[in-house]
């Protein structure tokens, strides 16, 4: 990942804003409990963690990434805010992530995974592991590239070819996998296609979560 991000991280937030769509929808849906905890897997430059900490002033935020280069940018961005005591970072791979070794915490009220599943080869295993790190009333929120089916065919073809250059593979079976793990673990879930299918949003709630 460092090979991809060591240069890009310097202009990452500016260039991704127009096409990593749906991230702010996800942040508004977090709705964490008072003094809750939030984990972001593949936090990149910490753009989402900083927004979440501002939106929810008593939220404790934790983020990890496999790219040390991205984490350097994340630490620098957080350092320019007054949120340094509320956002913690760790260097780790989502595949096999051990929350207690990274942050001394076993479970989180909210976990978000934003545009990272499309870069993680064993994303289905990360999906299951993430559900196991939720508090009983917790929620896992995912946003990523969607199926693009309501957009012109040429757009889908160009987008997918371009994403391949960055080792990004839209997970066209994301909703099926979510339905499968949610049903087998008795989670409640909802999925939404955003912007004519450009982005996919999923929210999976633990059985004790009072939200619908
Ligand atoms: C497209 S960026 C999204 C960053 C951030 N989540 C956002 O929405 O702005 C994907 C991030 O996932 C990270 N990543 C990719 N594979 C990972 C893995 N196996 N474990 C942890 N992070 C990973 C990349 O290093 C990168 O920072």
Description of the structure:
With 212 residues, the protein is of the alpha/beta class. The protein has a single domain, classed as Rossmann fold. The chain is built from 9 helices and 7 strands; from the N terminus they run H-H-H-E-H-E-H-E-H-E-H-E-H-H-E-E. It has helices spanning 2-8, 12-16, 23-29, 47-55, 68-79, 99-103, 123-132, 153-164, 174-184, and strands spanning 37-41, 60-65, 87-91, 108-114, 134-145, 188-194, 199-205. It has a 7-stranded mixed beta sheet with strand order 3-2-1-4-5-7-6, sandwiched between helices. Helix 3 (23-29) packs parallel to helix 4 (47-55). It is globular. The model has no long low-confidence stretch (mean pLDDT 92). S-adenosylmethionine is lined by residues 1, 5, 20, 23, 41-44, 47-48, 65-67, 70, 93-95, 114-116, 119-120.
How would you summarize the topology of this molecule?
Layout lengths: L1 H7 L3 H5 L6 H7 L7 E5 L5 H9 L4 E6 L2 H12 L7 E5 L7 H5 L4 E7 L8 H10 L1 E12 L7 H12 L9 H11 L3 E7 L4 E7 L7
Parallel strand pairs: 1-2, 1-4, 2-3, 4-5
Antiparallel strand pairs: 5-7, 6-7
Bound molecules: S-adenosylmethionine.
